[in-house]
Amino acid sequence: MSDDSANQHFRGQVRSWGTANKPNGREGDVNENSPLLSNGNHSGTHDSHIVNGDGGNKTLKFLFNSTQTPGTDSPNAAVSDMAILWFALRHRELTDHFPLDYVNFLLVMVPIGIVAGKLHWSPVAVFTINFFAIIPLAAVLSFATEQISMKLGEALGGLLNATFGNAVELIVSIVALKEGQIEVVQSSMLGSILSNLLLVMGMCFFFGGIVNMRDRVTGQGMEQSFASATAQTTCSLMTLSSASLVIPATVSTPDRLYSVLDKAESEEKEHSILVLSRGTAIILLMLYVLYLWFQLRTHPNLFDAETQHHEEEVEEPIMGPIAAAVVLVVTTVLVAICADYLVESIDPIVETAHISKNFIGLILIPIVGNAAEHVTAVVVAIRNKMDLAMGVAIGSSIQIALLVTPFLVILGWAVLDKPMTLHFETFETVAFAFSVLVVTYTVQDGKSNYLEGAMLLGLYIIIALAFYVSPSDAIDRVLSVVQG
Questions:
Q1: 443 in Cβ contact with 231 (< 8 Å)
Q2: Residue 99 belongs to what H/E stretch?
Q3: Of 391 and 288, which is predicted with more confidence?
Q4: 329 closest CA partner among 137, 121, 83
Q5: Cβ distance 206 to 378 under 8 Å?
Q6: Domains along the sequence of the chain with CATH
Q7: pLDDT confidence band for 234 (50 / 70 / 90)
Q8: 302, 230 in Cβ contact below 8 A?
Q9: What share of residues in the chain are helix, strand, coil (percent, to 5)?
Q10: Cβ(235)–Cβ(226) below 8 Å
Q11: What gap in Å lies between CA 76 and CA 346, rounded to an integer?
């Protein structure tokens, strides 16, 4: 399908949808075959209820009613593409049709966040506004990536999704690394992995288990199932990544304690940790490339369990690749700007609000880039599509552990001249290793229930509380006391 035909196809959908949802309230039933609407689960009165209620707000009418979306029929390709993008974002639905309307309303925070950073508002205001601004930008980035990947074929599309799957976390981490906030970078990487393994997977198991608790025929208790072979393969990779963190921590901590009085020896040990981290990062990147080849080329059947049940569903892009590429570039620039202001406000917040950098990196920053994916995973788990939910949760963790984190180590070494290492604090390493261990035991039987979900959520909350009450760089403080 060419760019023009793709856009014409979607313009037709926009017009037909608008006709079926006229402001007068007639013809309220929707076309269930439209890819923009859920199949019978999303009432045709969803938007008309918002815009046609008593005393309906004209702003809401403009935002929700497709007949009020200007530019979709413009002869100017650039104008029409942007109008189509805006309409698609308002009514775009995640996997299995979960609407993102309310998330995309946060786009108004983007210009406010940039102005707040430019005018040097209070650090709390700058951090908060840009925090919420990046969330919808992450959704737009994901949307543009999906549109481009549909045109590139399975292999290149999969590679593009792998590259931009955690683009927000990567951008925020690069900005933080450039500012020398290595502790924030390490915590955000670990936090992204833990949030996917424990928080997202725990919510999938819990809510999916609650909704699908009993068999509809017999009334007996039942468990949800997924492909255990795929889960075990990815968990094996996570175990490897945890080992890559445990080894530097094991090598470094005793040496730092014993050589603290000898500055020259201490510097030599730090250099050794850098060499170890950089060598390990190269190996992890090679393993990730091999994993992609395994997933996309030699054994794709192991990762397509969900697709095999829906072969009749063929999704077509609603934007041309050029327009999607422009959106991708512009959104990436906006994310970088907001991330820059967000990172700059971290130090003042730590000083004034008495919140550790570890907590900000581990808990808050991962929410920014993963909010849309988190919602997706939980929704499809509730719909009893656990293979897809597991793919979202564990797949993102694999990307962070084997791609993003090693890439940041190499970037700090070769480009930014920053001592980014795989030497995490001892508690961070232990928390990560135990989390991987618990998740591995949980998924090995290929079944899940709400009790297992509650256990994963409980472990995540315990770790979050531990990071909240623990000060930043605790070991460095101990060493400084010993040196003094």
A1: yes
A2: strand 98-99
A3: 288
A4: 137
A5: no
A6: 3-91 (no CATH), 183-320+346-483 (1.20.1420.30)
A7: confident
A8: yes
A9: 75, 0, 25
A10: no
A11: 43
